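Okay, is this right?
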Amino acid sequence: MLTLLTGCSSSPDQAESSTTTSSAPTVLAPIKATQVVAGLSSAGYKCSNDGAYAICTSGAASVWVLTGDHPRPPVVSLHSAGAVETASAEIAKVLPQALEIAHINQGKEIADWFGQQKGKTTAQLTSGDWLVDYSAEVDTDEPGAHLTLTDKLCTTNCQAE
């Protein structure tokens, strides 16, 4: 609970107070891909470049950020290899922090939704200006889980070549 002092009274010793609660989340301004990568590096991720993507790894999960000079990264994707349940758990560990670092304002909604995808092999969500795709690779040589966020506002150079 937050207590705010508001207004003035005729006596200098008295102030009116009102109690309010604020549930409005902080709106994060868009940041460029280089700033996202710098933020992930500062948070302890090991980052490298692989063509059009910067790949930042923490534990068994990696965050892929499509680079370029867009106002915000057109693609932010999280990946983890292994059995789907384990891979999804690894993504879930880093997802809230990665979304916050990337200034994706719908991070809580996306993380909550991701947690509800257990047992599914594909799912899709639209959250704000982001299209969110979940896929699980089960019967392949490289099993794992993937969560990709694509900026719906991007109009140029929005995918890797």
Summary: The first strand starts at residue 2 and ends at 6. Residues 84-101 form the longest helix (18 residues).
